[in-house]
Design goal:
β3 (60-63) and β4 form a beta hairpin. This protein has a four-stranded antiparallel sheet with strand order 2-5-1-6. The protein is an alpha+beta fold. The protein is built from three helices and six strands. The chain is flat and about 55 Å long.
Amino acid sequence: MTKFLLLMNHDGGTSTTTMHEWSEADREAHLAHLTATLDKLRENGELVDVQGLTWPKHAKVVRAASVTAPVVTDGPYAESKEILAGYTLIDVESEERALEIAAEQSSAPGPGGVPIEQPIEVRRLMESDADFWDI
């Protein structure tokens, strides 16, 4: 089994509005789709963890300072679509399976039931020192 991290950003895919602007029915349909996907992963023993993150206004960036105390600033300041919204950690048989799961998450419905096709970044966790050198 291999662990993959599926990263969701605030990029709304085909939707030009945020979930806060969707109808209640559209939000419920979106969340029901994601919940059903996660339930299947739990049943299959493939789900390790899933977490949403608080809004970027709560984020801090810490940089070590060689002479003084670490520097802590508000942030991040990336474009909102580049800001991490949450992740799903899975343990699956293959990269192909991880891509299947990411596609299922990406197909969650948005306004009017249209799949939002949100981009999901799929990253394999390092399993050995050799992974460090595989650049």
